[in-house]
Amino acid sequence: MIDLAEWNLTVPVPMPVAQVQTAELNSSAFRSLYLTRGEGGSLVFWVPVTGTPQPFSSYPATELRETRPDGSAYAWKYREADALLQAEAAVQQVPSRPEVIISQIEDQTAIPAAPQALLQLVYRVESPATGNGQVAQGQLIARLRESPSDSPKDVILLEHLPLNSRFSYDIKLTRSGVLTIRAHGAGSRNGDLGLQLDNAWSNHHLYFKAGARLRDGEGPATEGGRVLFYRLISMHQPNNR
Asked: Are 186 and 162 in contact (CB under 8 A)?
């Protein structure tokens, strides 16, 4: 059972109900078309291309965002603690612009301007399914900015990763500013990435997000992104939430 005690949920519907607070998310009465429990307590995120775009964005998302235990928004500076996000997931559906963002380290510092991500973990289909029984093959990509002033660049972690196949990943940002990502799945490549971030990030307030975010806002209501999470854990050492 994935623990949601320190997360809230953004759903692709109009304000003021676009965010489900932590207490409601963890109540027995919570029901949503966009986040459902699967077998073994897993989580299924669904976001249609017709969903309401999120603030400062042209596209919809169904995403968890870190909170404190009392439900208030939580953001951290990397020098305060080692931050770790561990997950195991499978991407089940992508839209016609065939990528889904499944995890992020987002930068709160830019608000009220448009928030910018330090890191986005992206599943992108590289070759679609064919009529002879072959399934769609995808890539797992780290889209990152080494400095707050940089434009995002893509680093491929896994290739030939079939749609609906299970994969795992760890994202760690240490107090010294070292970002490491380790991904394992059916695809090729070793899935490891490590780099020293620019010191300019040290004053930025960051937070983890996980779920399904699109870069597509056109098409029928049946088109969208669907992501199944078998495991999702965020940790901070020392824990200063």
From this structure: yes
Residue-level pLDDT at 236: 96
Residue 9 backbone phi and psi in degrees, to 5: -135, 130
The upper half-sphere exposure of residue 106, i.e. CA atoms within 13 Å in the direction of its Cβ, equals: 21
Which of 161, 30, 159 lies closest to 92, judged by CA?
161
Q: CA neighbours within 13 Å on the CB side: how many for 191?
A: 20
d(CA 55, CA 60) in angstroms, rounded, equals 9
DSSP per-residue string spanning 24-80? HHTSTT---SSEEE-GGG-EEEEEETTSPPPTT-SS-EEEEEEB-TTS-B--B-GGG
Lowest-confidence region among 9-18, 40-49, 116-125: 9-18
Give the pLDDT score at 111: 56
Which is it for strands 19-20 and 137-144: parallel, antiparallel or unpaired? unpaired
| pLDDT computed for residue 115 by the predictor | 67
Quote the distance between the C-alpha of residue 12 and its chain's center: 15
132 versus 34: the higher-pLDDT residue is 34
